[in-house]
Amino acid sequence: MTTNGRLETSEPRQWKGTLGSLLSDKLSREIDAFEGQIEQKRAGKLTDEVFAEMRLRRGVYGQRYDNGQRHDGVTSRELVFPNAELTKGPGTLWDAPGMVRIKNPFGAMTADQMDMLAEVSEEYADAILHVTTRQDIQLHFVHLEETPDLMRRLGVVGITTHEACGNAIRNVTACHLAGVCTTQTFDVTPYAAAVSDFLLGHPDAQEFGRKVKPAFSGCADRPCGLVKMHDIGGIARIREVDGVERRGFEFYVGGGLGAVPHQAQLFDEFLPEEELLPICQSISRVFARLGEKDVRSRARLKFLVAKLGIEEFRRLVLEDREGLSEDSRWTAYLDDVHKGHDGPLWQIETQDKLTPTPQLEKWLGANVTQQRQPGYKVVMIYLPLGDITADQMRGLADVARRFTGDSVRMTVEQNLALRWVRESDLAALHEALNELALADPRAETITDITACPGTDTCKLGISSSRGLARTLMEHLEERGELDEVVRGLRIKISGCFNSCGQHHMADIGFWGVSRKRNGYNVPHFQVVLGGQWAENAGSYGLAIVAVPGRNIPAAMDRIIEYYVDERDGDESFQAFVTRVGKASLRTLLQDLVEVPAYEQDPSFYSNWGDPREFTLGDMGVGECAGQVVSPVEFGLQASEREVFSAQDLLDQGDFNGAADIAYRAMLIAARTLAREKEIGLGEDPEAVVAAFKTHLYDPGLFHDPFAGGKFGNYLFRVHGERSNGFEATPERARQRIEEAQLFIEAAHSYHVRTAEAVSV
Amino acid sequence: MSAQAAPEVGSRVLSEPQRVGVKVFVEDQEAFDRARMIEVFHRWIQEDRLSGTLVDVHDYTHVPEGPGVLLVAHEWHLRTDEAGGRIGFEYELKREGSGTLAERVREAIVSVLEAALALEQDTAEDNPVRFATREMVFRFTDRLAVPATDAAFEEIIPELESVLAGFYGEIPIEFERVGHARGPLTLHMKVVGDGEWTLDELLNGARSAAG
C-alpha cells in the first residue's frame, strides 16, 4: 500500500502496454509510428511542415492561439508554455492545446464506442464531445503528447482518427436515417462503409492537393445527406435492367462549400453498385494526378472539375477505370449488403395507449419521427451547438443499449438520432433522456442552430459564431411560441467565409466579417438568404448585407416577421426570398447597418459572449478618427453596392450582366486601395489591376494571413477572363459574385491591418 | 477496454495520477450569475490572478449540467461545473507537476480554494458568491493511475483522509462514491463533525499543517 502517505515507487502504467492485444497489429503499428514521429519532431529531425501534415492525417489539429499570442482585451500577450522553443507546425507551439477530430463513418456509434468517447474526452480534453456538421466528433484542448494514447484507446473500440484531417479522404457521411427512412430508395449505409474502408489509407488517395469529402443519401428530396455540396456523392437509385432490379447511384462530383461554393455536377445518372469503389478509386487517381498542388485555394476537386469540365473529367476517370487492376474488395462487401438491417430483432410489444403529459406530448411532436419499419420510431436528441458532456454520453450509451439495440447516429445538424425505438418504449425513453437533460423538444427547428466553432477555438474565426448562436437561441426562446411556418426554418452560422457552419444552405445564414467603423474594428455578420437545405442542399444563398453582430437578433426578427406577414399562402421561405427580392430585404435591414459611437454603446465593439473589445491594439487611440469615414471606407462600401447590384441581375437571369458588375465591384475595391499608393490612378481597368499588383499584391501586403494571395488572384483571373470570351452560366455568375464578395472582404481586412499598423 | 479493467501492480491499485479534480459548491445556487463568470475569467487572465499559463475562456453555459464557463490553463482547467445540477468550482490538474497522489490532491484542493476565494473577494460588493466548505467532490479521470474500482475506492480513502486532516484537523469526515458506474472514480466528501470554516481558514490551516 503506502508508506507514510507516499506510494511506493513503481513503473508508471502505460496504456500502450495495458491495452496489449486489444488493439489490432496494424493500428498499433500506425500509432506507434505516429508516436515515433512526435519524438522525431521533438528531437528536431522533422520540419514543421512535414510534421504538421503527419499529425493532420492522424486527426490532430491546431487550435486558436496556438501561435502563443492572445489578445486579452487590453493588450496582446504571450502565452508562456514550458517548451517555448518547440513547435509542432509552422508558427504552432508544441504545448498549445489543440483539437482532435474523430472519424465516425456515417455518424454511427455503438454504446461501447460512446463509453470510450466519454472516457477520453474527460481524460484528455474538457469533458465535452462536439458533434460536427460532418458527423465527426471533435475534442478540444488536447495536448499533442497525449494523442497516441487517446488513439490507442479509441482503436480498441474500432474508432480511428486516421485521415480525419489533412489532404485525404475525409469522413464518409450519410443520412442518419439510412436504413430506417420512409423515403429512401435503399439503405446506403453499407456502401458508405465500403467506401470508407476501401479508401482509408489507400495508396491512390494519398497525393491530393486538398481534402475530399464523400457523402451518400438514400433519396433525392431530403437534406440529410447533402450530397450536392460534397466532392463525391451518391444518391440511391434502382434501375430495372433486363427485367431485374439493380442498385446503383445517381453519382455527383465536384461539389463543395468553402469560400466559393460549388454545386456538385452529375457524373453518372446511374452508377451500378459494383462500380462504386473502382470509380471512387479512379476519381482519386485523376484528382491526385491532375489536381492543383501548389495553390491551395484552387486545389479542391471542385476546381479541377470546373477547370476540365464535367465531360472531360468523366472521360479521364472512365479511361483510368479501364486500366485499373481488378480488386476483389470492389465487390466483396456486396454479398452482405442485402442480408438485413442494423436494427434489433426484438419483438414489438402490444402498445398501451400513451397518456402523455404536456412535456411528453411536445417531445413526441418535435423529436420523434416515423421509421419505415412498423412499430418503430426514430428519436432525435437535440444537442445545443453539437455539444454533449462525457456524463451525458455515458448515460446515453445505457439508453442506446436499453432502447435501440445499439443504433445511434450523429446528424449533419449536430444532433443524435436513436433508431429502432419501439413505440411502446417512448414514454420510458423520454423519462430516461429527461434524466440526462437530453429531452429538449427542439430538434430540427429554428432554435436548433448550427454553428462552426468560430472564434471559440478555430484559428480562422473572425466573429463568434457560437456566441451569436447562443444569443439567437435565447432570443428566440424569449419570443415565446413561434409561428408554425417559422419553426421549421434553419439558421446556420459560420465564423468566417469558410462555410464550416454551412451558412450557404440555410434559410437564414450568417458568416463572420470585420468592418472598420468609427476608428475601431467591429464584428459583423454577412446575412445570407435564399439557400436551400432540402434536395440534398439544392441551392446556395448569397450575402445581402453585412450587419453588426449586435444587431443580428433584430435583423433576424425583421426577416422572420416579414416572412410571416407577407408570404403568399404556403410559400416556402426560399420562394418568398426570390419573390420579394434581395433589394427589398436589404432595405429592410438597412438602418441596422449603422454602428453607434463607441462611447454611446461599446457593446457593438465586442463579440457576443466575449467581453474583450474586438480589436488588435487600437482601442482608445481612435478618437482622432471620430465620425470621419475615410475614402477607403467609402470606396469599399461602393464596391459592396456593386456586388449587390450583381446579385439583382443574377436574380433577374442576366448572368453576363451579373458577372460584369461583380468584376466592376472588384475593380472599385482594388482602385480604392491602390489609390492610397498612387494618387493619380484613373479608372482604366488595365491600370487599376497593374497598380494593385505592383503596390499591394506583389509586396504581399494584400495577402491574407492564412489564405495567402488567394483573394488577389481572384481579381487577376477575372480580369483575364474578360479578354478570353467569358460566357457566364448561372453557376459561373454566382461564383464570380462570391469571389467579388471575398475580394472585397479581403480589402476590408487589408484596410483594418494597415489602420492598426498606423495606430500602434 | 474500460479503465475498470486496468491491472493492479503488485498489491497496489493506485499509482501517481496527473489528473485530479476537486469541486467545491456554491452556497446560493439560485443567485449564481453564470454569465458574469465569462467576464470574471477574462479579467483573471488579464490580471494573472491564478498561477499557471492561462490560455482562454470557453462558454459552455448552453450545455445542461455541463462545464458552465471554463477557464483553460496549460496546467489545469477551472470550470463553474454544473454536473448533477449543482453549481460549483471544479479545479482539475491536467498537466505538468508531479508528486504522490496525496501531494496532487493537496495541490488541487489548495488551488480550488484559492480560486473560490478569489471569486468571493471579487464579488464581495455585488451579488456576493460564497462557497460551502463542509463538502467537496474528488474526481480522478486518470484511469490508469486511479481506476474506478471498489478496491481503488477503499485504498484511496485513507489517502484522502490524511490530506484533508491538513485542512480540517481531526474533524470526522465521510466519503460516498458517486457518479456513473463506468465513470471516473468520484467521491463526495462531507464533514460530519461540528465546525464551520471560511475558505481563508481552510487555506491557513493547510499552510500551518505543511509547516
Explain this structure.
The complex is a heterodimer of chains A (760) and B (211). With 760 residues, chain A is an alpha+beta fold. Chain A folds into 5 domains: 142 residues, 2-Layer Sandwich (Alpha-Beta Plaits), CATH 3.30.70; 157 residues, Sulfite Reductase Hemoprotein, domain 1; 78 residues, Alpha-Beta Plaits; 179 residues, 2-Layer Sandwich (Sulfite Reductase Hemoprotein, domain 1); 132 residues, Four Helix Bundle (Hemerythrin (Met), subunit A), CATH 1.20.120. Chain A has a 5-stranded antiparallel beta sheet. Chain A has a 5-stranded antiparallel beta sheet with strand order 9-20-21-18-17. In chain A, strands 12-13-14-15-16 form a 5-stranded mixed beta sheet. In chain A, helix 23 runs antiparallel to helix 24. The N terminus of chain A is likely disordered. By secondary structure, chain B is an alpha+beta fold. Chain B has one domain. Chain B has 4 helices and 8 strands; from the N terminus they run E-H-E-E-E-E-H-E-H-E-E-H. In chain B, strand 7 and strand 8 form a beta hairpin. The longest helix of chain B has 22 residues.
Largest interface: A-B, 65 and 57 residues
Task: Report strand order across the widest sheet of chain B.
Answer: 2-3-4-5-1-6-8-7
Task: Please state the structural category of chain A.
Answer: alpha+beta
What is the multimeric organization of the chains shown? heterodimer
Enumerate the spans of chain B where pLDDT stays under 50 for 5 or more consecutive residues.
Answer: 1-9
Q: Structural class of the helices, strands and pairings of chain B? A: alpha+beta
Helix/strand order of chain B: EHEEEEHEHEEH
Mean pLDDT of chain A: 88
Number of strands of chain A: 26
What is the residue-averaged pLDDT of chain B?
91
CATH superfamily label of the largest domain in chain A: Sulfite Reductase Hemoprotein, domain 1
Can you tell me the residue ranges of chain A where pLDDT is under 50 for at least 5 consecutive residues?
1-10, 616-629
